[in-house]
Structure formats: C-alpha cells, structure tokens
Amino acid sequence: MNWLDIGALADIPAQGARVVKTAHGCVAVFRTADDRVFAMDDRCPHKGGPLSEGIVHGTQVTCPLHNWVFDLTTGLAQGADAGGVATHPARVEGGRILLDAALLARRAAA
Amino acid sequence: MSQRLVVIGAGMASGRVLEHLFEDAPGAFEVTLFNGEARGNYNRIMLSPVLSGEKSYAQIVTHDDAWYAAHNVDCRFGEPVVKIDRERRIVYSNAGGVPYDKLLIATGSAPFIIPVPGHKLPGVVTYRDLDDTNAMIAAARPGARAVVIGGGLLGLEAAAGLALRGMEVVVIHLMGHPMERQLDPAAGYLLQKALEAKGITIHCKGATKAILGTDRAEAVLLEDGTVYGADIVVMAVGIRPETRLANDAHLEVGRGIVVTDQMVTSDPDILAVGECVEHDKQLFGLVAPLYDQARVVAATLLANPAAFRPVQTATKLKVTGCDLFSAGDFADAPDREDIVFRDPARGVYKRLVLKDNRLIGAVLYGDTADGQWFFGLIKDATDITDMRETLIFGPAYQGGASVNPMAAVAALPPEAEICGCNGVCKGKIVTAISSGAVTLDAVRALTKASSSCGSCTGLVEQVMAVTLGDAFAKSAAQPMCKCCDHTHEDVRRLIRSKALKSIPAVMQELGWKTAGGCHSCRPALNYYLLADWPLEYRDDRQSRFVNERNHANIQKDGTYSVVPRMWGGLTTPNELRAIADAADKYNVPMVKVTGGQRIDLLGVRKEDLPAMWADLNEAGMVSGHAYSKGLRTVKTCVGTEFCRFGTQDSTGLGVKLEKHLWGSWTPHKVKMGVSGCPRNCAEATCKDVGVICVDSGYQISVAGAAGMEVKETEFLAATASEAECIAIITAFVQLYRESARYLDRPWKWVAKVGLDWVKTQVVDDLATRAALVERFEVSQSVYRKDPWAEHAKPSERPNWGMLADLTLEAAE
Ligand code: SRM
Ligand SMILES: Cc1cc2nc3c(=O)[nH]c(=O)nc-3n(C[C@H](O)[C@H](O)[C@H](O)COP(=O)(O)OP(=O)(O)OC[C@H]3O[C@@H](n4cnc5c(N)ncnc54)[C@H](O)[C@@H]3O)c2cc1C
Ligand code: SF4
Ligand code: FES
User: Fold this and answer.
1) Is the Cα dihedral B544, B547, B548, B551 positive or negative?
2) pTM of the predicted model, to two decimals?
3) Nearest protein CA to atom 3 of ligand 4, as residue
4) Start and end of every Nitrite/Sulfite reductase ferredoxin-like domain (chain B) (predicted)?
C-alpha cells in the first residue's frame, strides 16, 4: 500500500476528528482516546450528516444529526439502523497520520 | 586468527552481544570496547531503584572489571568515539585511532531536551545514565522541590524515586493522562490517583513555556501561567536514537541507523544494535527486542544465518505500589473489539483488545497477576473464541465445565468484601438473602451493603442474581444509559460524595461497562462535573454535542448558524451594521429574526466561523449561546421606558438578568421573559422563568413550557426589590443546575422535586438562597466569558478548517 502523510496526530483532538478533502469526497479522520486513527467517508448514509462532527466513544462515532452510531473499524451502522460508510486504511507512525494514497486517485469518469 | 571487533557503546544491547560471542566462539574476536560513560555495562533499567534508594549501583552492575579482563576486552571507558573512518577502517576517540575488521555501533539513545528558555540552566537534568541519577540524588534533600517534565514511564519513575527521597514532586505532562502511550484514560486515571496518594502532583495538559532562574533553575512556567518552584528540573520527555557518528560517516540513517534483518548497516562491515537502530521503519525502546537483536548480531558476526523479527513487548512500571501492565498493540489497526472489566472497590481495571478472535493488546491495572498469561496469548496469537466470555477473568476460569460470565462473582469466597464503605462481605449478603431479603432495598436494610456511596450496587445485585437465580428481579430504576447501572440521580450524588473530578474517574469508580462511554452519557457526565467542580474540572470539548463543541448550530447541510447576543432584545445601529457587514462578507444565504428577539445568520461555513466571530466581537457582540444547554434569551418588552402601561423597567431588568446569567451551563436550555405589565407582551408566563412587573414590584413565576409541551408558569415569589428579584432567579437557576438530571427542562425538574421544596430553598431560607447565589458566582468566575473570542484567536483558527486537501496534490 502507498501511504500518504496528511498531518500530525496532534492536529486531531483525542476523541475527535478532522476532515480531509479527497477526489472521492470528504473523508473524516478520527482519533480515539487511545490514539488510534480511523478514516471513513464524512457522509452519514441516513441524511448526509458530517460524521466528523459526531461524538467519538470507544471505536464508535455518533452522527451529529440524528444519532445513528457507526463502528469506526467497519463503517457499519450499529443497532437497529442498517447501512454503512466506506472506511479507508489509516495509521499512525512516529506521530504522523498516514492515509491510503488510493484516495488521491480521481474518480473514474462516468 | 582472530578478527578485530570494535564496539562503540557499552550498554545493555552490546553487553548481550559480547556474552553471546564469548560463549559461542571464545577467542574469535579481539574486542575493543568504547564507552561514553566512565564505566562499563550496568542494568540501566534498574536506575530507578537506585534513584529511590531501594538498590545500590554495585547491585546493578552486569559486567565487572574481572569479566572484561577474563575475556581480554580492551576497555576504553569514559572515552567517547568521535569519528569513524570507513575508508581506512579506523575508529577515533580523542586519544587516537583503533583499526577494525568489524565495527558494532551500540550508542543507544540520547534524551530529548525541549529547547524552552532556561533549558541550559544548572539544575536541569535528564534521566538516562548513572551520572543523571547521582545528580538527582545529590539534589534530593527532604522538603526540596522537584519538577519532572514528562509523564511517561521514565518521568514517573523519576518522580516516584524523588518522592521516596522526601522531595515535593510535580509532574508536568502534555497529554490528558500519564503514560498515554501505554495506558488508556481509565488506567491512566487509576495510576494518577495512586501517584497522587504518594504525594506526587500530576499536572496534565500542561505545556512547559520556560524554566525560570538566574544562576540555576528555580521554577518552571507553563503556558497556562502556572508556576511551580523547583530546586531541580528533570526533563524526561522522550528519547531519540544516538545516530550522530553514523550520520557523519554517511551510513544510511532514517530516524535510527538503518539495519537489515541481519543487523548490518549500509556498510557490510558495520553492524548496529540497540536503541540506535531502525529496523523495518521501527525503533525500539525496551530491552526485550534488543536482546533478540543481540543474538542476531552475534550470529551474523560468526557468519551463522539468523534474522531479527520484532515481537510484541510488554511494559511494567517499576514504581512500588503501582501495579500496571500493558502489552501488545493499541495503535492503528481496524477491526478491533474491547472487553472491559472494572472493580471499583479494589481499584482494578482490565481491558483486552481483540481482533479476529485473537488477543492483540492488554492493559491491566491494580491486578496484574494474569499479565504474563495474556501476554502469552498475544504472542502466540491464540484463537480465543471458546474462552471469550470468561477471558477477562484470567486462566483460573478457563477450561472448566461451565463457562459462565457470573463465575467470577460465584467463585468469590464468603469473606470477600463487597461493600467497602460498610465492610459487608459476600457471606453476610448471602445470609440476608437466605433469610428472605429478595430485593435490593431489603438487602440494604438488613446488611447496609451499598447503602452509603452505592458504587457496589452492581456487585450486590450480582451476588443476589447468583444466589437467587431466576427469582432475582433487577431494580426497576432506569440506568443512565447502557454503559452503566446507575441512574442519573445516583451518578450526580456519587460524583459529589466520592469527589469524582474527571470522566475517567467517574467511569472507573462507578463501574462503567464500556471503555469510552457513549454519546448519551458523556455530555451528561461532562455537565455534571463542570457544574459540581467549576474550578477544578476542565470542560471536555470532545464530550459535547456538535453545537456546543463548535459554538454554533449545525444545519442539515453541515453549515452553521450564528446568533450574536442582543441583550434583552436591544440592539444598536452599529450592531446592525456589523451584522449586515458580516452577512455580506461571508455570503450568508439567510438572515432571520428569531423567536427569541435577535438575529440569526444561517448557512455559514465552518471554516468561516472564527473570522466572522472576530468581526462581530470587534463590534462589541458576543455569542448568543443559541446552541447551548445554558441561558438562551431573556425576552423583554419596552416597559416604563416608553410604554404607557409599563409599571417597572422591564427592559432594564431583562438586560441585567441576561448579563448576570449568560455563559452558565445548565442541564437543558433556559429561557426567560420579563413583561412590564400583566398584558405580558414578552410572553413571560410560558418561559422557564418569567417576571411580570406590577405596581408593587415583581412577580416571579417558573416552570413554564412552550415547546413540545405547553404549560403556564407557576408562581414562585413576589418582591418589591429588583435586586432580590435577581437573587431569587439566580438561586433558582443554581438549584436547577445542581439537582436536575441532564436534559430535563426546569418544568420537568420542578415536577419531580416539587415546587414547595424549590420555594423553601430559594425563597424562604435566606441562608440557602445566599449560598446558592454564591456558588453560582464561583462558577460564573470561570464561565461568564465569550467562547467565540477564545476560538477566534488567530492561533485557534487553523483547527476549524480541513486537515488536508488531497485534491490539490492529485492535480500536481
Ligand atoms: C432560530 C429559532 C427559530 C426561529 O427562527 O425563530 C429556533 C431554532 C431551533 N430550535 Fe427552537 N428556535 C427558536 C426559538 C424557539 C422557541 C421560542 C422562544 O425561544 O421564544 C421555542 C419554544 C420555547 C421553548 O424553548 O420550549 C423553541 C423550542 C425548541 C425546542 C423544543 C424544546 C422543548 O423543550 O420542548 C427544540 C428542541 C430541543 O431543544 O430539544 C428546539 C430546537 C431548535 C433547533 C436548535 C433545532 C436543532 O437542534 O437544530 C433550531 C436551530 C436552528 C438554528 O440553527 O438556529 N427549539 N425554539 C429560534 C431561536 C431563538 C433564539 O434567538 O435563540
Ligand atoms: C531509567 C530508565 C528505566 C528504564 N526502564 C526500562 C524497563 O523497565 N524496561 C525496559 O525494557 N527498558 C527500560 N529502559 C530502557 C532500556 O534501558 C534501554 O532500552 C536500553 O538500555 C538500551 O540499550 P542500548 O544498548 O541500545 O543503549 P544504552 O544502554 O543506552 O547504551 C548505550 C551506551 O553507548 C554509549 N555511547 C553513546 N555514544 C557514544 C560514543 N560516541 N562513544 C562511546 N560510547 C557512546 C552511552 O554512553 C551508553 O553507555 C529504561 C531506561 C532508563 C534510562
Ligand atoms: S420549529 Fe424549530 S426545530 Fe422545528 S423546524 Fe422550526 S426551527 Fe427547526
Ligand atoms: S444524517 Fe446521520 S443520523 Fe441522520
């Protein structure tokens, strides 16, 4: 995999998220309380809520608009809600956040 | 014929290499050993017991003069190497050159020093070798003060050692809890508590700004303005591989000296080992992997095949009385699950991290007996599917016939203490149950178990469930959320009675079942803590709903609305101009007058918020908190100022109330209205608090509603004095802040506690009223300030934009 340095871990608050703009749309990069990072599309499948603004708890995030809960590791909605969000490989190395460079690729023209 | 081996650095890694070499092939190498320190190899990890006085230096020496002599090692201690000449294969110290056939670099790490002003003052030391340790011991007079910068493993060991020598110790740590790289917040909280019990102060989220002093270090100044006096300052903020020699010699160096699986550098005759190396992009800071490297180095030197493969490492803190263990990987891989166990009574916390039915990480605090067993499961990547339910209870509960999660409670002996407050053991509870106590209340009445602080309620219920089986019906009270067994009311009570002052503290002491809570409990806990401990607790932004975190209301398309305060509904041409200018400048798609007598700018982009706030601040406006569980608006009518029916200055009173109460956080939002006469043009009688002005003064009524529920206010008090009117309303708000459950509007809360009780507290009992008003003021000393102004600071603005824009990179 080709990794891309997108910023310092310290740029994201613990239990928070920041947004990265990519050719595939906005991607939310989450940081958990124990400094793991996860990336997934910043669009709730319910009504498009910005997941990056949700409350992060454990490895889950709650959508800020209507409280759907998503697992950061799988992107799947929890509980009774059905659906999911695309996740993207991300990791931390030496205090830097690395994101899968595949996100750079332009969406294939329709 | 023996070859000439030169070794740079007599540390733990190279010491192990030499042992293997002399054992496997005595006489194969003629060794010259340089060391920067004026001594040979000792067990560096035992410096902490030397510092604390529990061991002497002599006890931690691993290779003495006799050992070096027996193996013919040419020892050059206290003689640092200054240059490697690869072309001619000579290593130089200031005393001259020594030729080599093979060279081993084992220079370890250098402590990292934050270059703040004053870092070079005498009295500032690092913690790496015996000289540092002796410098600390020399400074450690009982009663003297030490500041340790860095709350990681090294810093805490230094702090504990100095405290044992009688010093007053403060640890400054940048992150939210100590040892954040090895511990999650819950275990970090327990560790912090244990260290504080040893008299060590731990200042988290503290950034060092400068070390103060003229001839030597005298104090440490933090960014937040705190100053700690210091007779000695220990910097223990991290290490970086000592690669200077390798760099100068043009070997391949990344963060460390790059080596192959055979531990060979980019020069085939030069090997490297220990903390100075980088293998497969990874650095190493614990001895276990270094010992594996040492074995490979010896094999490579003897031309035997071998390859270094890093394995998992485990950490233990060597501080007497702080039992903690952390192993495996807590970083950066998806698909993980947690199993959490807490026993608040014993201060035990255990967390296991699973992936694909395998254990990959473990954090244990308070009871680390099973650490090695978990570590074994991690290293062996054992499939734990079959023992998953009881895994957290350790090896004692595996492999038996019945796999029952209740087994742990069932297995407790009768003398095991369940209720710490009242000293009630399991046997006594079982006896009470057998004699007919089948409800929690009955058990409480008979045994006093869980009747004081209540934190063992869950355990008592488990004992009842084990004893009664299906006959046990759990208490009906709704717990706060699925993360815990306590009601909101219990949690509020316990936060006060147990003096819990952080979210991890609450979660640990009250037995939270999840690692980080959920979106329902975290905002509630954050509110309860800041309401009860306004001066000590620091608001946790990440535990707030988006609107309160971003100080604006999120809209359905992800933009925000901005509502500046208009005190009592009053505005000025200048304010209106500033609002109009802001609407133009930031392309605001909709400007609307709200139902709360002010103006809403809707559709603002998140990254524009700080700049817009700065513009509004410039014109003298502050946040209207239209997003908060806090004071929203005080709606007023024109009153005596202009109206021919007005009886009092209702506008003026509304402005006073709003200026007095703004910024305070409340369990739910609070809206007020002040009307100048009973015609009630300010709709005061359907607000949370309403005032109707009459000839004789002010009639205060409370607990109205005009949202999903519509309800008229109820009469609370009448007074002739405007000052008393404000005092009563302030006391009412503070009582609401202190006793309502999160997300109950005042009308709901009053219905639960009863208006009569509220009246006695805020109207009749003058002393209670005064105390409530005073506590409100204490809280307002922190919270009566404009959050916009803080976030609009230039230094804060980048945090409001994107982290990165990859579409630009793609275009390049
Ligand atoms: C802007 C405004 C409507 C307007 O255009 O006038 C408004 C807009 C919203 N109201 Fe309201 N309420 C507004 C006055 C009211 C009023 C009338 C009043 O304040 O005099 C009420 C009835 C009184 C009351 O508070 O109960 C009102 C009862 C509600 C409720 C129901 C509360 C309840 O306990 O039943 C909610 C939902 C909630 O808070 O949970 C709500 C929630 C909301 C939210 C925050 C919904 C949301 O979560 O996104 C809306 C945010 C829009 C935004 O971005 O600004 N709004 N809302 C008014 C702002 C007043 C202000 O200046 O601060
Ligand atoms: C206080 C303390 C507590 C620790 N506790 C633990 C623990 O509990 N568990 C654990 O696993 N690890 C612990 N460690 C870490 C462990 O000590 C190191 O990982 C280990 O010592 C590294 O071994 P090394 O041989 O690479 O380097 P070192 O042991 O540091 O040896 C390097 C040597 O090289 C010398 N040197 C450097 N440059 C030159 C030069 N140019 N010329 C000549 N000589 C030079 C240095 O003077 C030093 O003596 C602790 C460390 C400290 C300081
Ligand atoms: S009544 Fe309030 S919450 Fe409902 S749509 Fe209008 S502004 Fe939004
Ligand atoms: S948009 Fe996310 S829950 Fe509705």
Assistant:
1) positive
2) 0.66
3) A66
4) 555-619
